[in-house]
Specification:
Elements: E1 4-17, E2 21-28, E3 32-38, E4 57-63, E5 70-78, H1 87-103, H2 111-126, H3 131-145, E6 151-155, E7 168-171, E8 176-179, E9 189-191, H4 193-204, H5 217-235, H6 241-247
Parallel strand pairs: 6-8
Antiparallel strand pairs: 1-2, 1-4, 2-3, 4-5, 7-8, 7-9
Helix pairs in contact: 1-3, 1-6, 2-3, 3-5, 4-5
Length: 254
């Protein structure tokens, strides 16, 4: 019995194994990223039916005496079904799941990060029209929580942050901004002053107040472009789900 553990998790990746088994990767506040084997899941008519789907929030009991822990039972808490019924919502949710898959580790749970994930899934399911805004807000909290918050307080050279210094350029390698007077190189990630100020608010606000922030199309485009390029630099790879956002109509500069 000491090998039996119970946790709450969100399914962030699934994989079929053989004719009947299923491997799920979840993110839980206690264990961080965790891989679990659901034996007979594809044949199950009761135990796992409609439970081990992407984005589902579950309570699972598993036996960790094996190299790959085996699920004994799973209770569905929230399926977030609307996210699998609308392509734009699906691609946004996949992007966030991919961030958790590549950026987090096993045995490294984070209750606050888990709360951000649940907030994002709930808001996206209820207000799909604001999906671009929720992506920006989640990624703001995500990078901040991981310790990679960009420094958007002022120009890194002259220390100014006002309309006379706009637009600003984001320096990916340093994670800082430079105003137009101090930086003239073309092709940099451009940030308008409203974008910088809204991101600053997103970093500071508690998660329960994030939905109050309203972001226009330009702000979403600039912020998503920042997070894609910044994340690619830090992770040393591009997350493929970014490409899918283009086909889903998201305002992203590729």
């Amino acid at each position: 019995m000491r090998n039996l553990k119970t946790t709450r998790l969100v399914v962030i990746r699934t994989q079929e194994l053989g004719e009947s088994d299923k491997l799920i990767t979840g993110y839980s506040k206690e264990s961080g990223k965790i891989q679990l084997l659901a034996k007979g899941a594809k044949r199950s008519l009761k135990r796992f039916v409609n439970k081990l789907e992407l984005f589902s929030c579950l309570t699972v009991q598993y036996n960790d005496k094996y190299r790959l822990p085996i699920i004994n039972w799973a209770e569905l808490l929230d399926s977030f079904l609307p996210l699998r019924q609308r392509y734009s919502s699906y691609t946004a949710a996949i992007l966030i799941c991919e961030h958790l898959y590549y950026w987090t580790a096993a045995n490294d749970g984070d209750e606050e990060l888990f709360s951000y994930l649940l907030w994002f899934l709930k808001e996206l399911a209820h207000q799909p029209a604001r999906s671009s805004q929720f992506l920006v807000l989640f990624l703001s909290k995500f990078y901040d929580r991981l310790g990679y918050r960009p420094d958007l307080t002022a120009c890194a050279i002259c220390g100014k942050l006002d309309n006379t210094a706009a637009p600003f350029a984001f320096r990916i390698g340093q994670g800082t901004i430079i105003c137009r007077r101090c930086y003239i190189k073309r092709g940099a990630i451009s940030l308008a002053l409203p974008t910088i100020k809204l991101l600053g608010l997103a970093f500071e606000l508690p998660v329960e107040k994030l939905s109050r922030l309203k972001l226009n199309t330009q702000t979403c485009r600039e912020a998503l472009n920042l997070f894609r390029c910044y994340g690619r630099y830090l992770l040393d790879r591009d997350i493929q789900a970014w490409q899918a956002l283009n086909t889903a109509g998201y305002p992203i500069l590729m």
